[in-house]
Amino acid sequence: MSRQEVLVIGPIMPFVVERLKQHHDVVELENEADNAEFLAREGGRFRAVAVGRLGLTGKSIAAMPKLEIVASFGVGYDAVDVAAAAKAGVVVTHTPGVLTEEVADTALALMLMTVRELNAAERHLREGRWKSEGHYRLSHGSLNGAVLGIVGLGRIGKAIAKRAEACGMKIHYHGRHRQADVAYPYHETAVDLARAADVLMVVAPGGAETRHLIDTEVLKAIGPDGYLINIGRGTVVDEPALTAALEKGVIRGAGLDVFDDEPNVPDALLALHDTVLLPHVGSASVATRQAMGQLVVDNICAWLDDKPPLTPVPETPVPERS
Q1: Class of domain 5-98+286-304
Q2: Which end of the chain, N or C, is more open, meaning fewer C-beta atoms within 10 Å of its C-beta?
């Protein structure tokens, strides 16, 4: 495999850049004074691009006429204009699988913290109120015997279901279609699933199809004894509607690892005490993030070595390679 130029559009973890440099000559766009001007002038140099959370626009894709592959860091790839990539014949890859177990662990922890009010209980201790006021109040919720409704039963959703079953929960799900090999009860709509669930777990990907899928109607269906957990994408939940639902007691609590406009978390959500808010740490362990980064590198290296990409997204074509 001959060394070729690879463009990195960050922010992306340094591990990716370091590993790419072992095989290819890396150009980091963030080091350029004017990104758009650089792409307009030099975009024709690159066959391969690695992108971080900011993704890649259709305009940037058009500025790189020789582009063949975009390797996106993360299982979600809604920040990449896959429609423009597909139209240009560009393959897009992502990093599924390697983060499944880590995110599922985080989802279970977030659900436990929210339903059992563990973060509030810890504050009760740290603030000295255990001694001054006595025991923390009894938490209303419990996992054992409760129904977990999963919106998006993919790899991560199934891993969460496995963990939840070990806690004595019953699993229901909603997705674009019923899965023939899944025995859990299926619900045609998110509203129907919310009515059946004690805890609604959102694992759905982002994008126009799922934007604000969890809206006022769904939140009302969860009910005043129910909980919302979002480990998928912030755009799936209508944040103003969620804030209003929490303020008015429409639902009992919420646990969020993702937000609509990260890292900007609305002050109204921060002010609520019946929420657990995490700064998008679902897959944030060194081992998992390095595995994700290595998959970005491996996809690019495979392609530039005239081999098929390892984890292409379904929306972009993959021409046959020897």
Answers
A1: alpha beta
A2: C
Q: Is 233 a catalytic site residue? A: yes
Q: In what order do the strands lie in the sheet with 91-93?
A: 25-28, 5-9, 48-51, 69-72, 91-93
| CATH code of the domain made up of 100-277 | 3.40.50.720
53 is catalytic: no
**Active-site residue, selected from the candidate residues 24, 94, 233, 289:** 233
Q: Where are the domains of the chain?
A: 5-98+286-304, 100-277
Question: What pLDDT, in 10s, does the model give residues 228-239?
Answer: 999 999 999 999
Entry pTM: 0.92
Q: Which of these is catalytic: 47, 124, 155, 280? A: 280
pLDDT digit string, tens, across residues 121-139: 999 999 999 999 999 999 9
Give every CB contact of residue 175 below 8 A, 6+ residues apart in sequence: 151, 152, 153, 154, 186, 204
- Establish whether domains 5-98+286-304 and 100-277 are of one fold: yes
- Is residue 262 flagged as an active site residue? yes
Q: Which residues contact 298 (CB under 8 A, 6 or more apart)?
A: 310
Of 18, 165, 217, 262, the active-site residue reads 262
